[in-house]
Design a protein that fits this description.
266 residues; alpha/beta; eleven-stranded mixed beta sheet; four-stranded mixed beta sheet; 8 helices
């Protein structure tokens, strides 16, 4: 197992402002006019291989918005993994702590998208689940010097929790995206999250409340904040989002412009 970068190449002035501890997934995407029924074989009109994973997507977004970023993750020692490391580098993301392992394949997501942008997805996490505490210790200096640390649940919850604990104890602002959601989420995730950001489905799973409107999202957000979160954001797709905080505890609905979705995969 090896890290992909050279620690000596990162100068002090280039310390990452945003560190993402999370997943990298190779997307195997098929485009088709409609989604197949159970047991049905249909023709698609396009196929491509892309770079995904909630963690890496968030890291790329931050980099494209101008932040110096670092990705702490694990991929397989295979062609998908090597291609992924190259993709991160092309997006000006530090790969110093992008690890490769021979013990599992690079994570993959098999995705089918129809003409309306609706999708079905199967993920095989693979090497993502092997990112561990020892890997985080090697990246501790980078994590502890960041301004923001982001993580999700496409790696093991234990690793995400350790990353949040490490960042929080060093005064780094933490942003946690509880996806895919776990109903019995460890309570420490709430108290260690400066910003807790979930979508409506995840909010339902976490709180047991139905979320079908901005008002419902506000009620769910209040429950989450009562568990210890400092800021809660519940995203609602085309309806925008609802947010509240310990300092502004009244739910606020922030609408968004209507657009035609092209692809809603993450």
């Amino acid at each position: 197992m090896a890290a992909a970068g050279d620690p000596g190449q990162q100068r002090a002035e280039e310390v990452a402002a945003v560190v993402v501890v999370g997943s990298c997934m190779t997307d195997l995407v098929s485009l088709t006019s409609r989604l197949p029924k159970t047991g049905e074989t249909i023709h698609g009109h396009k196929f491509f291989i892309g770079f995904g994973g909630k963690g890496a997507n968030q890291c790329v977004q931050a980099a494209r918005l101008g932040a110096k970023t670092s990705m702490v993750c694990k991929v397989g020692k295979d062609s998908f993994g090597s291609d992924y490391i190259e993709n991160l580098k092309q997006n000006d993301i530090s790969t110093e702590f992008t690890y490769q392992t021979q013990d599992a394949a690079t994570g993959t997501a098999s995705i089918i998208v129809n003409n309306e942008g609706q999708n079905i997805i199967i993920i095989v996490a693979g090497a993502n689940l092997l990112l561990n505490t020892e890997d985080l210790k090697k990246a501790a200096t980078t994590i502890n010097k960041a301004k923001v640390m982001i993580c999700q649940l496409e790696i093991t919850p234990e690793t995400s929790l350790e990353a949040l604990t490490m960042a929080h104890s060093n005064g780094v602002k933490t942003l946690f995206n509880p996806a895919p959601a776990i109903a019995d989420l460890d309570p420490r995730f709430y108290t260690l999250s400066d910003v807790f950001c979930c979508n409506e489905t995840e909010a339902e799973i976490l709180t047991g409340l139905a979320v079908g409107s901005p008002a419902d999202a506000g009620k769910a957000a209040l429950v989450l904040m009562e568990r210890g979160c400092h800021v809660v954001i519940v995203t609602l797709g085309a309806e925008g989002c609802v947010m509240l905080s310990q300092t502004e505890p009244v739910p606020k609905h922030i609408p968004t412009e209507k657009v035609k979705p092209v692809d809603t995969t993450e």
